[in-house]
Design a protein that fits this description.
single chain; alpha/beta; 230 residues
Length: 230
């Protein structure tokens, strides 16, 4: 895969009117010709889609559900590399070139290290734990900004359209194709989920849900508990 590989950045959104323009503006500032930005909105009750439309290559609507939205975006995209970016996450400088280099060898997919943006000093510890766990296990979270070749995405059938843990599941499937490229550059993600619902309660909730998913629990049941806890 050459260095000029075209990258499609796919952003699933839901009620992100406060931040979507800033995020898309930063992506435009990359000054890349070999990229496109595809926003897929899952039925926002605010102006997310209207604000995104002038700034995105494509601004689409779909039924809600992050996995479904990302699959819709991938189907509408042109790139031979797919980058799935959360609406509250920012890419590091030079990210697209790093992705191209990482996938130029025998890797089919990968992710970035993460830094959580917030005031609590434990956020650094949480981010470090996420990065180390991912490096050891070969499993990535969506917060770490997954990227992959289109052929890998198609080989595993895209994201499983389940309401929770779709990032864990696609990582497990992608690992059958190659180990992930674990980039040390950090994406910066908002800690609003952690701070808004309590740091320790969120840690406990996510570990409990991940453990139960690993033990075979149905993601449809887990998402009910996730929503109830939040």
């Amino acid at each position: 895969m050459g260095s000029s590989s075209f990258i499609s950045i796919i952003i699933p959104t839901l009620n992100e009117a406060e931040s979507i323009e800033a995020q898309l503006g930063e992506l435009h500032a990359l000054g890349e010709d070999d990229m496109e930005v595809v926003v897929v909105d899952g039925g926002s009750g605010d102006d997310t889609l209207a604000l995104a439309a002038p700034l995105a290559s494509h601004a689409l609507s779909s039924a809600p559900g992050r996995a479904l939205q990302m699959n819709v975006g991938a189907q509408a995209s042109q790139g031979d590399i797919l980058l799935f970016l959360h609406a509250d996450t920012r890419l590091p400088h030079g990210a697209l070139d790093e992705i191209r280099q990482a996938l130029a060898g025998n890797r089919e997919w990968g992710r970035f290290d993460i830094r959580l943006q917030g005031d609590h000093r434990m956020l650094k510890v949480i981010a470090l734990a996420m990065n180390v766990r991912s490096r050891l296990s070969g499993i990535a979270t969506g917060d770490q900004t997954l990227f992959m070749t289109r052929r890998a995405f198609e080989a595993v059938g895209g994201f499983p359209e389940q309401p929770l843990m779709e990032d864990i599941e696609i990582s497990k499937r992608l690992k059958r194709l190659s180990r992930p490229a674990c980039l040390h550059s950090r994406v910066v993600s908002s800690a609003r989920r952690w701070e808004g619902h309590g740091l320790w309660s969120t840690i406990w909730l996510m570990w409990r849900l991940r453990y139960r998913y690993w033990r075979g629990a149905d993601s449809r049941q887990l998402v009910k508990e996730y929503r109830h806890a939040r």
